[in-house]
Amino acid sequence: ASPDGSFIYVCEMMKNRILRFFQRPSGVFHCSVFLQLSGGVGPSAVAVAPDGRLFVTVFDVDPAAVGRVIVVSSQGKIVEEISLVAEDGSSATSELTGITLSADKSKAYVTDGASGALFGISIV
């Protein structure tokens, strides 16, 4: 959900897009396509930072692809793309399955479904 709770974001993986739901007026729900991606299978998980940025994991089945997290502004624009690399220099596979923020909201933790690895990235 957005920091103020007014929006809920949903990854629609096989359609390669992120939906945004909101209520207006109370009890009446609306949905719109917040961000349409291309290539890959699609977004698999989303976490929202306190400043409203979305951190989105992208799932792909291409063995040559590297695991990546896209950073999206609260207006729906991609502002950064982060390739995940472990401390030993190995890259995440492209089968990213989850993301969550640390308790203090300074890091995002990303799960790699193919390798079982957990990656941490600074989001400050």
Structural features, described:
With 124 residues, the chain is an all-beta fold. The protein is 0% helix and 50% strand. The protein has no helices and 10 strands. It has strands spanning 7-12, 17-23, 29-36, 42-48, 54-59, 68-72, 78-83, 96-101, 107-112, 118-122. Strands 4-5-6-7 form a 4-stranded antiparallel sheet, with no helix packed on it. A 3-stranded antiparallel sheet has the order 1-2-3, with no helix packed on it. Strands 8-9-10 form a 3-stranded antiparallel sheet, with no helix packed on it.
Short structural description:
With 124 residues, the chain is mainly beta. It is built from no helices and ten strands.
Give a quick set of tags describing it.
124 residues; mainly beta; 4-stranded antiparallel beta sheet; 3-stranded antiparallel beta sheet; 0% helix; 50% strand
Distance between the termini: 19 Å
In order across it, which strands form the biggest sheet?
4-5-6-7
* Strand and helix order: EEEEEEEEEE
List unreliable stretches of 5+ residues: none
Strand content: over 45%
What share of residues is helical?
Answer: under 10%
- Overall geometry comes to globular
Summarize model confidence as the mean pLDDT: 93
Number of helices: 0
Largest sheet: 4 strands, antiparallel
Radius of gyration, taken over Cα atoms and rounded to an integer in Å: 15 Å
Structural class: mainly beta
Query: What's the total count of β strands?
Result: 10
